[in-house]
Design brief:
The structure holds 2 protein chains of 2 kinds.
Chain A lengths: L4 H18 L9 H4 L21 E5 L6 H16 L3 E4 L9 H11 L4 E4 L8 H9 L3 E5 L10 E4 L3 H16 L3 E7 L5 H14 L7 E8 L4 H14 L3 E6 L2 H12 L8 E4 L3 H9 L5 E4 L2 H16 L10 E3 L5 E3 L5 E3 L4 E4 L9
Parallel strand pairs in A: 1-2, 1-3, 3-4, 4-5, 5-13, 6-7, 6-8, 8-9
Antiparallel strand pairs in A: 10-14, 11-12
Chain B lengths: L3 H33 L6 H26 L7 H17 L4 H25 L4 H20 L3 E2 L4 H8 L10 H18 L1 H11 L1 H6 L4 H27 L2 E2 L6 H11 L11 H20 L4 H30 L1
Antiparallel strand pairs in B: 1-2
Helix pairs in contact in B: 1-12, 2-7, 2-8, 2-10, 2-11, 2-12, 3-4, 3-5, 3-10, 4-5, 4-10, 6-10, 7-8, 11-12, 11-13
The chains are: A alpha/beta, B mainly alpha.
Chain lengths: ~350, ~325
């Protein structure tokens, strides 16, 4: 057998090299213009006075099901869909992998939904199917984690990236007393939202007023409780002088708090970031966590339903400057690139946490 | 020894029966789904179904041959992931896609050859070897691409993978599936290689006496498994326009499930490719139909699990009933 194998391998290798040597191939740089082609523009004109249609089928496709944070978000969506007399549906994969969402989008196209509200696990992997959905007249609203701008009509931004990044650094600085080592415990390294906040944090940390704060490590817990717990443990062991762990994900902050509250690091290392009041309540009460922040996730799902309904009813097209009413949240204006900003994040401390139940 | 041909024939007919049964069940499921599930029988849904089946169908082809020889390859999904990761890495390094694709297939061949060498050269159990390489190759995929994703593959290629043949409802990738299914079907059922595969599965010693070199045969089957996993990795990456190290994670179980559902014996020596294709289509269309009917994910897993147990149980039950009748 060994007599034939090297020949075949050699032939294949030579063939591959010969092909690449031709130089006329399709490379990343030769297709860059193709990939940045103009987005498919949404046809039609906005009619701000069009009434909201009733009976709209609005489907929520979160990153994964059975995630407590997501449950609160889509819970808000369900309320809003009820208010506008639509049909609410929740569907999605149990794992947060990039490709498993695609089958669910395809299913929603077949079921002729009017609106798909989706949190993209991978901004590009879902694009072809989302565009197929839009071709079929379905309005696509993203939340949590945006898809490429070219394949959705609007994006519900829970807060501006800048605002969250600044608020995370501000909390970290206060907790560290203005100087010392800090670390970040993020979700997956490819999570769109976490990465954009981390980028702002890095810019903020580079400013002179934060010169004494040193970001020593960005760890990734993959939004998995066990992995986040282990990563938090690892951070504290590798960096004994660590003062603050900033976790911009609800899974990460809860896991890190659980670890610290039961270890001898309690009281020495501060945990902050973005968390759910119900998950964090015990750690705030036992002193592990002094403060953390978040927007109200129920409002995101709620706003997404109204945005989707407004799109589907022709009130808005997703163009910058379009205005629509979102029930109890009031009036919203669509910003650049179809972004709708929910509002500033809320800081939770021992003083106010009992006012929130989500 | 003298009874050997008779048992073989009986086994063959039993498996032929299961083949007919699984194909019949698949057809019934397709008809029932088309009749009762809204928008199951649309051209667009057919396209989605084929794309969802694509990686499982491709990888199941060499897997069938490997399992018939009495071995297994659990590293297929990790080879797929590693090829996808390497594809993304090379694309980011500004290599032309025309040479990346053959390189990915070559990489698949090398990964498969490593499995083959461990199993045949060192005589290690394939279950242990490929569980090891399952972890190893997936780990390497993360080494290559980290947790990141590469997304900007050329639209001309990604459109071909997600597109259909002209204006027909048949996806382009169906050509790949059909051609390879025919090739593997012919090799398994109409060539000396196929007969050697069955012979090795039925009894390695006997096959050796009949002039077959089991080690060499298995080695090349593992190479074939690697190449096809590499191809599946390329198509997966282009379908989702996303090269990621975690692509295809867990796929090996779906593939083994489909192969066993298709009537291939996990102990080797028995099985037929049409049944395997039916098994793949059955699992895929059931999932598709149940999802369209808003059946939850958990229920979907339950259905798949029950199906698999039934598929292993049914032929054995049938045999024991037959034997009881005879005695």
């Amino acid at each position: 057998m060994s007599r034939h194998k090297p020949h075949l391998v050699a032939v294949l290798a030579v063939a591959a090299l010969a092909l690449s040597a031709c130089g006329g191939g399709t490379t990343k740089s030769s297709t860059e213009s193709e990939n940045t082609a103009a987005p498919a523009s949404t046809a039609g004109k906005a009619d701000p006075n069009a009434p909201l249609k009733e009976g709209l089928k609005i489907a929520y496709l979160p990153k994964q099901l059975n995630n407590p944070y997501t449950d609160v978000e889509v819970g808000g969506g369900k309320v809003a869909v009820g208010e506008i007399k639509g049909e609410y549906k929740l569907t999605g994969p149990n794992d947060a992998s990039a490709s498993s969402q695609v089958s669910y989008i395809n299913t929603l196209i077949q079921q002729q939904q009017n609106v798909i509200v989706v949190a993209a696990n991978d901004p590009n992997a879902v694009c072809p199917s989302l565009n197929q959905a839009r071709k079929a007249g379905i309005k696509v609203v993203t939340f949590d984690s945006d898809a490429s701008k070219t394949c959705r009509d609007a994006f519900i931004n829970q807060a501006t990236t800048q605002g969250i990044g600044e608020s995370l650094v501000k909390m970290a600085s206060e907790l560290a007393g203005g100087a010392g080592e800090i670390a970040i415990l993020s979700a997956t390294p490819n999570a769109t939202n976490q990465n954009s906040w981390i980028k702002v944090m890095q810019t903020e940390l580079a400013k002179p007023e934060n010169a004494k704060l040193k970001l020593v490590k960005i760890a990734y817990g993959n939004d998995d409780d066990q992995k986040s717990f282990t990563e938090a443990q690892g951070l504290l062991q590798s960096y004994p002088n660590l003062k603050v762990i900033v976790s911009p994900t609800t899974v990460g902050i809860a896991a890190a708090s659980r670890y610290v509250s039961s270890s001898n690091y309690k009281g020495k290392v501060a945990i902050t970031g973005l968390g759910l009041p119900n998950q964090m309540r015990q750690y705030v009460k036992d002193g592990t966590v002094k403060k953390f922040a978040l927007w109200n996730p129920a409002d995101i799902g709620y706003l997404a339903a109204y945005a989707g309904a407004a799109l589907s009813s022709g009130q808005i097209t997703g163009a910058q400057g379009d205005k629509f009413k979102a029930g109890k949240l009031g009036e919203y204006t669509i910003g650049a690139d179809g972004e709708i900003v929910l509002g500033p994040p809320t800081e939770f401390t021992a003083a106010n946490i009992d006012q929130f139940n989500f | 020894m003298s009874a050997e041909p008779i048992t073989a024939e009986r086994n063959y007919s039993r498996f032929a029966n299961w083949n007919v049964a699984i194909i019949a069940i698949t057809v019934v499921v397709l008809i029932v789904s088309a009749a009762t599930v809204d928008s199951f029988a649309t051209a667009q849904n057919f396209g989605f179904l084929v794309l969802d089946l694509l990686p499982i169908a491709l990888v199941a082809l060499p897997m069938t041959l490997v399992i018939v020889t009495g071995e297994i390859d659990l590293s297929v999904a990790s080879m797929l992931g590693l090829c996808s990761a390497v594809m993304g890495y090379l694309w980011n390094a500004n290599q032309p896609i025309e040479s990346i694709i053959p390189l990915c297939l070559l990489l698949g061949a090398v990964l498969g050859a490593v499995n083959g060498l461990f199993v045949t050269g060192l005589g290690l159990p394939s279950l242990a070897v490929t569980i090891g390489t399952l972890a190893l190759y997936r780990g390497l995929a993360f080494v290559v691409l980290g947790d990141g994703a590469v997304a900007d593959f050329p639209p001309s290629y990604t459109d071909w993978v997600t597109g259909t043949i002209g204006s027909t409802p048949f996806p382009n990738v169906l050509i790949v599936i059909v051609v390879l299914a025919v090739v593997f079907g012919v090799v398994l059922h109409a060539t000396p290689i196929g007969r050697a595969v069955f012979a090795v599965g039925a009894g390695e010693q006997a096959a050796r006496f009949a002039g077959v070199r089991p080690g060499r045969l298995k080695f090349w089957l593992y190479v074939a498994s690697g190449v096809i996993a590499g191809l599946a990795g390329v198509l997966w990456t282009l379908r989702y326009s996303s090269a990621r190290a975690d692509n295809g994670a867990g796929l090996e179980l779906a593939v083994v499930a489909a192969v066993l559902l298709g009537g291939v014996s996990i102990f080797g020596g028995k099985g037929a490719l049409p049944g395997v294709i039916a098994g793949v289509v059955l699992l895929g269309s059931l999932q598709n139909a149940l999802r369209l009917s808003d059946v939850s994910n958990e229920a979907l897993n339950v259905v798949t699990g029950v199906l698999l147990i039934v598929s292993v149980l049914a032929p054995n039950l049938a045999r024991s009933v037959l034997q009881r009748r005879r005695t």
